[in-house]
Amino acid sequence: MSRAPRGPLYAKMAGIFTLCAVGGPALMYYVTPDPDTLFSRFSPELQKQNLENRDRRKAEYEDFRSKMIEYSKSDKPIWVAAAEAQDKARLEIQERALREDKARKEAKRGMREEMERGG
User: Alpha-carbon torsion 83, 89, 92, 97, what sign?
Assistant: First the structure.
């Protein structure tokens, strides 16, 4: 029982691998439009809206990036550190809302007392 030579099989596999490894990214490069070309195809309203929101999006990205860098410095996984930061921010918002509500009630009470004294 003799075996068929495996050289042609390996050559065919190497050719298919090369075609996929080089041809796939080349096809994506060819098919994907240039960002400037894509922007020029937008309607004038979308171009205007995109330009107006560019600074906001850039600031949000920088904020996100700085938070991820801060979270990565922790010993904990990033998602745990992010969840803890969200919990802390939520508590701060609740505390601020309680303080504002208390100040609002105090101001109302002060106005009511003033009305009673003046009336």
Answer: negative
Structure tokens at 110: 């002060």
Structure tokens at 30: 């060819």
Give the amino acid at 88: K
Q: Output DSSP code: residue 112.
A: H
Long-range contacts of 78-85 (CB under 8 A, 24+ apart): none
Q: Is the pTM of this model over 0.70?
A: no
Tens-digit pLDDT profile for residues 4-16 = 789 999 999 999 9
- Residue position matching structure tokens 């080089």: 22
Residues near 70 by beta carbon (within 8 Å), at least 6 away in sequence: 81
The angle formed by the CA atoms of residues 65, 70 and 74, to the nearest 5 degrees, is 140
